């Protein structure tokens, strides 16, 4: 049974939640390994609709174990709120949720620092989700952070005060924010104690017992702190490599990487976006694709599919199979351009440059593919797709050199075309 990593290949919101929920019956446990409640993963089936932020999308399958790995940054308040809202919706979380004792905490101070930094940046702001993600990874790396294991320590209040002493000086209302943390602590400790575990050891024990793990990436490779459009990025390791560092499972135990790819491109927040459609075509995609943030409600910026950026993401992450989502959103277009090359100042370049100012100057080279102009919503068989839609899928597969095991034709579980693949057991049965 494989251990499979699922990551987003664009700027997030590729439909990872739908895909994880769909394939997780073939696995024993689902593991988040980076990010925090900046993520918004949507799962829909029948008349049910869930937006998950911290808890893996496997939670809707009662027999699956769900793990929040050591690479995450977790707001205890947001986690408890998410547990409560799932329980209120009739989803059992008791006994199937574990949180790494090494995961970093997002405290009220971190969220306030996120807001203060965005305000100070003014026009140059990142457009973060304001969840405190960047400051929490900042204090992690500078070794001033607090972790889940600290919640269990009797001197938690003292640890908060000493470790955050330096960053507290940045904010005028820090004392009140630290008081808020101290006041909330008894409830956090009482409710989270049974969940906080040495998940690195547990995950490796499960592998030794022959269980298979599904790693659920958040965000997308183009938002990765190293590989993404820095500084317009998130602060975590979104990449396939992040699944190992963020879970404690060695790269040699991983069997492969599935890339989730939307049939066009979106981005939320600031930062360069080669080929962004600022006209009514972009608006049409946004409306038909319902491209509004799952976490913040912000309208997502839209553009055609950028195959150059995706090819780079595939190469750097060892992706061997794709889940192509939202094909149905392109149903009504006569022509569908895709970006197959980049030029800057008339000169061809092969990949996204490091400097975001140069990325902003990219002139995308487009190939115009014929649209199918027919409904594909909900189709479940590849041969039922219009021929031009199949040609679109096959063009993508051939350009990227990677097959699509999943073509998604709607937000619901059943609205899916699936082929068998060794990394996704049981998918097509
Ligand atoms: P994630 O962050 O990668 O999990 O993606 P989000 O949940 O933020 O955004 C994806 C959105 O597209 C959600 O509203 C999904 O319900 C929806 N979605 C996923 N797959 C499809 C699809 O194939 N077609 C359509 N029309 N919507 C989809
Ligand atoms: P999922 O998992 C899309 C973006 C923010 C901002 C940048 C930095 O749902 O795909 P942060 O709060 O992380 O410091 O913000 O990253 N961003 C996302 N965009 N989907 C996400 O998650 C995102 N998580 C963060 O909009 O541009
Ligand atoms: Mg999302």
Q: What would you call the quaternary organization?
A: single chain
Count of helical regions: 14
Let me know the number of strands: 20
Give the cofactors and ligands: guanosine-5'-diphosphate, 6-O-phosphoryl inosine monophosphate, magnesium ion
Query: Which structural category fits the helices and strands?
Result: alpha/beta
Largest sheet: 10 strands, mixed
Rg for CA atoms: 21 Å
Word description of this protein:
- The structure is a single chain.
- The protein has 429 residues and is α/β, with parallel strands linked by helices.
- The chain is 31% helix and 21% strand.
- The protein is built from 14 helices and 20 strands.
- It has helices at 16-23, 76-88, 108-121, 133-141, 148-151, 156-163, 165-168, 174-192, 199-208, 240-245, 280-288, 307-317, 356-359, 387-400; strands spanning 4-8, 29-32, 41-45, 48-52, 65-68, 73-74, 97-100, 104-105, 196-197, 213-216, 256-262, 265-267, 301-303, 305-306, 319-325, 335-344, 347-349, 363-370, 404-408, 416-418.
- The strands form 5 sheets. A 10-stranded mixed β-sheet has the order 9-7-5-2-10-1-11-15-19-20, sandwiched between helices. Strands 14, 16, 17 and 18 form a 4-stranded mixed β-sheet that branches.
- Strand 16 and strand 17 (347-349) form a beta hairpin.
- The longest helix is centred in the middle third of the chain and has 19 residues, at 174-192.
- The radius of gyration is 21 Å and the shape is globular.
- The chain starts with a strand and ends in an 11-residue tail after the last strand.
- The mean pLDDT is 97.
- Bound molecules: guanosine-5'-diphosphate (GDP), 6-O-phosphoryl inosine monophosphate (IMO) and magnesium ion.
